[in-house]
Amino acid sequence: MGTDADPFAGLVGKAIAGAIPGATGIANLKRLSGGANKETWSFDVRCDGAQGKNGLLPLVLRRAPRGVDVGRSNLLSLEREAAVVQAAAGAGLPAPRVRYVLQPDDGLGHGFFMDRIEGETLARRILRDEAFAAARPLLAGQCGAILARLHRLTASAVPGLRVAPILTELGNVRTLYRSYRHPHPVFALAFRWLAERAPAYAQTDLVLVHGDFRHGNLIIGPEGVRAVLDWEGAHIGDPMEDLAWISVNSWRFGNIDQPVGGFGQREDLFAGYEAAGGRTVDRDRVRFWEVYGTLRWGIGCMGMYATFASGADRSVERAAIGRRASETEIDLLALITGKGWA
Amino acid sequence: MQDQPSAIEILAAVADFLRQHAMPQLQGHTAFHARVAANALDIVRRELEIAPQANAEEHQRLRTLLGADGSLEALNEALCEQLENGTLTAQNPDLVAHLRRTTMTKLAIDQPAYSAYRRALAEDKAATSE
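^ inputs. structure came back:
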């Protein structure tokens, strides 16, 4: 296979030989950047017959770090994530086709192979490069339409997902916050604000929620959204959660007046959602979830520091993200006490 | 009393070395991490410049707001408790002013280029010139 010198590449090639009919080898194996919690490897499968272009099938291996699934409480196992991606793709959503889920005998740990979809995930390029100028005005509406289709899936689509209405989510985030043992008065204010406004709903209102629908997890081409990635945060919850998370200011990358991902207006997102058959958008509830999402990212920043302090990752990058919690504080203050929802 | 250069001057020189001399020789992830490292040194430099006075002011505001004394950390913990149990609320303008001021100081140190910080600064400037 030409990769025998590298034991990891040898194992990938061996697994692929069993997983992809007509596969004769792999090439161009390289680790992609990004994804602190997961490894992502890009490679091409050499194929006999009709698969792929020019006899090459572009794939990705998404794998737990060094294959070891640490089982973080609110994140899906790789195996269950693969099932969610399959369900989403099966329902016509733009999600990569899952080709094979790793088995213990493969010697690669936990992970799965899926199709590699070409396009851009880096927010700064999507928001600034000329190549995406025509796509930018379309993205908010497209995101709305994708979420509307996603939210037609309910708990029966992928059995075993955690059911997480707001009080459960809020309780989980609060437990995490308290475990970090560092006072953030603005976060305390936000917890109170959210607890006082937590919407009540019936179990039947809950749907399959992506949970991390934002830049970095969307593959964008010059024509718009090509695929939704990173389904590890999927759960059964309030559909308004997905409509809010993409507008958290940290995902606007400086374009503060384009709330949806730095590329669009909330009303375009909502119109796309409703036109594609999504339920009527409850704007108060979306605002509620935007406060929640901002708080969740702020506590995520605290978690980055905790990972640094524990010794699990001593990188400057990890430590520095701890000093981004203050970004979410100013956003929370604007949302709660000022004119942050315009 | 320590000798010259000051800690702030040393940090500025090291960050400048990373950006002007080291980074152009580096590639890929290493270049990226060198930039992150230079930015982290800038945080430390700004903290040395800003935090001593700002922390003292925050401490004084907390004593007034809570009518109690204690360490800066203890008073912040007490404030968190009163916010979570609803004793202090966003209806209290002194509280909101305190939180905003404290957060603006953090951002002046951590992320002075952040969009919402720039906007809040502009709002403050407009308010004082009115």
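Chain A touches chain B through 33 residues (CB under 8 Å). Residues 283-310 of chain A form the longest helix (28 residues).
thumbs up if we can close this ticket
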